[in-house]
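Issue 218. Parser rejects a valid record. Input:
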Amino acid sequence: MSATSNLIDDAPLTWFHKKLTVFSSGGPFIDGYALSIIGIALITMTPGLKLSTGEIGMIGAASLVGIFFGGAIFGWLTDKIGRHKMYIADLIALAVFSLLNGFANEVWQVVLCRFLLGMAIGADYPIATSLLAEFLPKKYRGRLLGATFVVWAVGAASAFAVGYLLRSFGPDAWRVMVASPAVFAIITLLCRLGTPESPRWLLSRGRKDEARAVIKQVYGHQYDLSDISSDVDANTSRAKFTDIFKGRLWKRTLFVSIFWTAQVIPLFAVYTFAPDLLSSFGLSGDANLYGGSLLISMLFVIGGIPGLWLVERIGRRKLLLWSFAVIVVALAIPAFIHDVQATPLFIALAIFALASGASSFLEVVYPNELFPTEIRATAVGFGTAISRVGSAASTYLMPAAIISFGAAGSLLIGAGITLVGLVATLILAPETANKTLHELTTKNNTASPTEIKVTEGSLP
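Output the parser choked on:
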């Protein structure tokens, strides 16, 4: 295998890459949609099932707890049995658990369905993004991987629009809402049928003939295994879950876990309880609650547009640092305004949405670039899992936080959490832009994240 022939890393962008990006975006779309639709469904579910504050928090957090287990378990399994099998099976699970949720009659049934739905969502992050990362050229990898996560915000925005349309279904409107992710899961499933397995993963399992067949199918009969520069090392079939904590990788695992968690805690709390948060600002009525929630979610999408351009222009590290800094300032300011009114609070939330949308997609870019093929999905799954521990806790506590600390106090807590992410990025984050997966992840690249940062001229 030639070390200088990098078919995948240096290939031009093709229709196959664009199609695979769209198909891989289905999971994040459903994640954003399912997480946000529950916040609207709770408007009719709360009186319908006579929910207490604790039960509301449980329902809001259930899918995030499920994502914890789904990411950890199925990320590891994806590295063991392959990307393609899981790429299909995961969508079947998403559709089934969404439909079952619509027929729930007890609180525990809703919680269980949301938990199982979360497991399927958590599985899709390592499955889809690992497969996509292993096909993408280095020049477009950050932008297209990031685009899949910007679609998360599109899904969330769609949920608020759909929720507004479905509110006229009466007391049982919540049943239609929680079942509706199944429609998108089935559509995504049909699109993904026929997607080839990753040739990098096939090589990591020693299945050279199958890898060769995929290369010829995707790139043409004139190409062969010698046209791939692989990040696969010898004896990778023995790779274990614990490998992400060994050698130079433990710092990368620590960085991914901290920055991802710091991003999603305020993000999920806002999305899940956007109507409640806006009510605490003093806003009321369908136009303000549904419309305000839709506007905030659309700002996440709008923020992602310059973010996807900047990620290749200024790099991953600077983009993450700047977005964290802006969020800290925006969320902290209302706490220092005496008798703060709705307008400053809404502006703070809007700035948060723009800045978060500009960099939240790095949650799937960084871990896919920092870990080798044999443990890539494991690492993405672990990052997904750890991030959901904090986000599940914050979502469970969010209703009580609004009551106890008010809107400004809740935003200040989000600022403090974001500050932790900022500090971790300063200390641990490497720059990975415009590098091949081979350069970033093979064992002959022995530099730690901090060493990589210094040698590339990043901030000290």
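Fixed in the parser; the record now loads. The two ends are 37 Å apart (CA to CA).
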